[in-house]
């Protein structure tokens, strides 16, 4: 079921503006489009913010409705929000994206060499394993009864059988493909 509601205490991440990427807490809901946010642990002052400029997280901190900044800070520190958020997949992906974005030309070159080396190792191991599987006859999955080799390949039919004459049907009266004329 859906659990990420816009409510007091919901931890969110700013998506737009000068505080983009910072964790904040919803202190009060002003109307259906705006909320009052506060981010004392991430350096975001208390202000109104558009709901569609926030990414809601799964975390919710408990504090009174329209609590002061000091209470919000204490609640966030007690909840240990930075540590909990840093353990999420969301944070890992964002950190990887940031790292990729800040790569220079030499970093991209080193990455290309590392990928090439990794693929070489993986391909060598795959070919080794495939060779073993093919020799066991297990390429297409495990046979039902025991370990059986693959069935032998069919031999080609003699060429005399291919050269049999085709039967030719007699053509109908009239032009080929056109109906015969009636008299």
UniProtKB/TrEMBL annotation:
Region (Disordered): 137-183
GO cellular component, as recorded: cytosolic large ribosomal subunit
Domain Large ribosomal subunit protein eL14: 45-119
Compositional bias of kind Basic residues: 163-172
A single GO BP: translation
Alphabetized UniProt keyword annotations: Ribonucleoprotein, Ribosomal protein
Composition bias type Low complexity, residue spans: 173-183
Protein origin, superkingdom: Eukaryota
Residue ranges with Basic and acidic residues bias: 152-162
GO molecular function, one term: RNA binding
Family membership noted in the UniProt record: Belongs to the eukaryotic ribosomal protein eL14 family.
Protein name, entry field: Large ribosomal subunit protein eL14
Species of origin: Anopheles maculatus
């Amino acid at each position: 079921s859906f659990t990420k509601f816009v409510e007091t205490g919901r931890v969110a991440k700013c998506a737009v503006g000068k505080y983009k990427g910072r964790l904040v807490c919803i202190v009060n809901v002003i109307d259906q489009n705006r909320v009052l946010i506060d981010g004392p642990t991430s350096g975001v002052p208390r202000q109104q913010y558009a709901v569609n400029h926030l990414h809601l997280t799964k975390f919710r901190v408990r504090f009174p409705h329209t609590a002061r900044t000091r209470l919000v800070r204490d609640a966030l520190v007690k909840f240990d929000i930075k540590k909990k958020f840093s353990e999420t997949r969301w944070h890992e992906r964002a950190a990887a994206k940031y790292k990729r974005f800040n790569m220079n030309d030499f970093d991209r070159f080193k990455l290309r060499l590392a990928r090439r080396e990794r693929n070489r190792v993986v391909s060598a191991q795959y070919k080794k394993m495939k060779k073993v599987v093919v020799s066991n006859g297990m390429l297409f999955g495990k046979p039902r009864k025991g370990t059986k080799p693959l069935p032998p390949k069919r031999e080609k039919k003699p060429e005399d059988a291919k050269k049999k004459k085709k039967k030719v049907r007699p053509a109908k009266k009239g032009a080929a493909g056109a109906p015969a004329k009636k008299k």
